[in-house]
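User: two proteins, same treatment. go.

Assistant:
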Amino acid sequence: SVVYYTRTAPRSGPPLGHRTGHTAVYQADAGTEMIAIFGGGILNSLELAPADIWCFDIHDYIWVPSKTEGRGPGPRMLHVAFAITNTSFAVYGGFDWQDEETHA
């Protein structure tokens, strides 16, 4: 699945909590460098993190929630992701606890 997103207003405080099995994708655009975080599981729990995207602005040291466009992948962990453009990345595979199989 391809995930397209746009940055929204900055949010103070820790937005993510502790995640494990998530992906992090580096992206840069017009002087902005960020790391987009997707998916994963809640640390020390069997619960999946939401299928949301948070971007860490490398220059401003702030977490920024991102709004997705279209139908993206559902919550998952242990997947892979890679950048396609400055505002999109692909997600492949992973584990969603639904049927105990991996998904493409």
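Protein 2:
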Amino acid sequence: NEPWEFDSVHNAAGIITEFLRCLPEPLLTFQCYDSLLTLAEEIPSNINNVISSTLSDSLRHVVNQCLPTHHAKLLSHLIKLFRNIAEHEKSNKMNESSIATVLGPTLMRLKTASIENEFSIVKKVIGLVRFMIQCGDILFLGKPYRAIFPHLERKDSRS
């Protein structure tokens, strides 16, 4: 009944990571794996803060069409959390790339465990998750997103 206290952000990150590892299927599901990996190949490694509307539209389409609703919901909350963490990089030393490196392979587990291509796939997954963090506001906006999260429509209409 007592609230949890964390000694550091690393404890909280460890709990999130363990939760994601314990899911029966990765948050970014095996059904979406090939589509997401194809998108990841299109993301330039030096994207920094430049957001491609074509890539973000494609990613939004995959998320809306492929992920189960509860996966998309949790993903949106995690991406918001990751963006918030990255905004405090000076105090926590975690930017988008660091977060994607630590949590990307847990969000989207490898479909095959071939050592030959494992490194290149993990690199693409990290790039994809970094891109999701960078374009989170764009990714989770629009009618398809609001259909999944109707409570946001009410908040938006008041502002």
